[in-house]
Specification:
The complex is a heterodimer of chains A (354) and B (116).
Chain A lengths: L7 H15 L5 H24 L5 H11 L2 H8 L11 H30 L5 H33 L2 H7 L17 H20 L5 H4 L6 E3 L1 H26 L5 H27 L9 E3 L7 H55 L1
Helix pairs in contact in A: 1-2, 1-3, 1-4, 5-6, 8-10, 10-11, 11-12
Chain B lengths: L7 H24 L4 E2 H10 L6 H13 L3 E8 L2 E8 L1 H27 L1
Antiparallel strand pairs in B: 1-3, 2-3
Classes of the chains: A mainly alpha (354), B alpha+beta (116).
């Protein structure tokens, strides 16, 4: 973390960034921040005029300290709250969101839900209802506990001490402005994706390209053949996405939206794939690859086929978990991008109106 | 139920805030008969002895604008974008009424205080 910056104006920007973090995310946010920023710069100008020299970081820090900690300033600018006062309310909201959306929901989706389903003995509706009930009561208990803790904190005025102790020099460094997708990166991605698509299209005629020497004694099952076309289509979409990014770099939403769509589509295919595996007969030990007729009697080849099948299954489950997390993150990134763009266009409309 | 002795400063602060709130609105509206931007408005109020912090002023300006009492305009001055505020026609009318109300309250209060 860069706390040693000696640029006083950067300190103001870091301060505004910190205030933005605590402000409710709405259309007023940019407007209020623009005015607060202008006020602080005017104060700096006035002080410089009074002292006859540009302010150093300590002098700017003094102005910021007098203005108040970012959290407190944001709370004053926000709407009035009662049970939990305006000073604590932004932190309360932050903790509540963190616990409910980023801890409780993922724990129930990725741990409690699968465990309930595994122990359901086929009664999936009951397992899903049980999980939903647990999530509801867990969310209620967590929200009630957090509210109680903050209400107690509010009454003890613990935050008064924070206001005295805060130090502008410890503000987080400025976030980098949103980077545009680099040309080199997109061209490389496109090249790789086209090569991979060609490779994927050649596999049915040349299984050696995926199985290597094992192509001599292993062959794909009908299940794998059934999912071949959706995978090819998905990969084609990926190529089209990179080509569009290259052709239309100004569509800043495209990389994020395309990535999210691709993750959701992959997740859907994986879901069907894993579902189909669980639906296959219990005696079926080799859902993905089986031994070719010529190698059916070899114990050695049977062991290899078993290892390949287990590896594919583990990879598919791992990919499902990873993609589920990635989809949540990508959704959040896309929403943040849309929100940011809306506020920028709102500012542009205001500027045109001026 | 009377407040405990350790609650009295807090009670005083709350009452002071209530008292200031209405006065600040009146002072801001009065200052904005002349067009000003945030910092110069704060400075003018402070020079007349009425300190107001940034976190209070800007939401107040926004509220008064939403109520139709102020109009604002972003404009460049000294190579920086500033938001200038002034009273709207409705604001001028409301200010007149508020000032009359203020004078009545002030006169009554002075009378009450003299009697006490």
């Amino acid at each position: 973390m860069n706390t040693s910056s000696r640029n006083p104006i950067e300190l103001v920007d870091r301060y505004l960034q910190a205030v933005r973090f605590w402000l409710p995310k709405n259309r007023r946010q940019d407007d209020l921040l623009a005015e607060l920023g202008e006020d602080l710069r005017s104060q700096i100008d006035a002080k410089e005029e009074e002292l006859g020299h540009p302010l150093d970081q300590a002098e700017v820090s003094e102005i910021l300290k007098r203005c108040g900690s970012p959290m407190v300033v944001a709370s004053r600018m926000g709407p009035q709250r009662h049970l939990i006062g305006p000073t604590l309310f932004p932190i309360y909201l932050f903790v509540l969101k963190m616990v409910l959306l980023w801890i409780l929901v993922p724990v129930f989706i990725f741990i409690v839900g699968p465990v309930n389903l595994a122990n359901a003995n086929g009664n999936w509706p009951a397992a899903i209802l049980n999980t939903m009930g647990g999530l509801w009561s867990g969310a209620f208990t967590a929200a009630a506990t957090i509210t109680l803790v903050f209400a107690i904190l509010e009454s003890s005025k613990a935050l008064a001490q924070h206001e005295c102790k805060w130090d502008p020099a410890k503000l987080p460094p400025l976030e980098k402005t949103e980077r545009k997708t680099s040309l080199v990166q997109t061209v490389c991605e496109l090249g790789f994706q086209v090569s991979a698509l060609v490779w994927l299209l050649l596999i049915p005629q040349h299984p050696f390209m995926i199985l290597g020497p094992a192509a001599g004694f292993l062959k794909a099952t009908p299940l794998v053949h059934a999912f071949y076309l959706p995978i090819v289509l998905l990969w084609m979409f990926s190529v089209a996405r990179s080509a569009s990014i290259l052709a239309k770099p100004e569509w800043t939403w495209l990389p994020l939206a395309g990535q999210l769509f691709q993750s959701i589509a992959t997740l859907t295919i994986l879901n069907f794939f894993l579902h189909a595996v669980t639906q296959s007969p219990k005696t079926e030990m080799f859902p993905f690859v089986v031994l070719a007729d010529s190698a059916r009697d070899s114990i050695h080849y049977i062991k290899i086929a078993a290892v390949v099948n287990v590896s594919i299954l583990i990879s598919a489950v791992g990919a499902w978990i990873g993609l589920s997390i990635a989809t949540i993150i990508q959704t959040w990134q896309l929403l943040r991008h849309i929100r940011k763009n809306r506020s920028i266009s709102h500012q542009a409309i205001s500027a045109q109106a001026r | 139920m009377s407040p405990r002795s350790d609650q009295i400063p807090e009670v005083f602060e709350n009452l002071k805030l209530e008292l200031r709130r209405g006065c600040l609105t009146l002072a801001v509206l009065t200052q904005l008969r002349t067009e000003r931007y945030g910092y110069t408005l704060r400075k003018a109020l402070s020079d007349d002895g009425l300190e107001i912090d940034e976190g209070t002023l800007y939401p107040l300006l926004r509220r008064l604008e939403n109520q139709g009492l102020l109009v604002s305009q972003w404009r460049e001055e000294d190579k920086r974008n500033k938001r200038f505020y002034r009273l709207s026609p409705a604001g001028e009318q409301t200010l007149e009424q508020l000032l009359k109300e203020w004078q009545n309250i002030n006169a009554s209060l002075s009378k009450i205080l003299q009697e006490a």
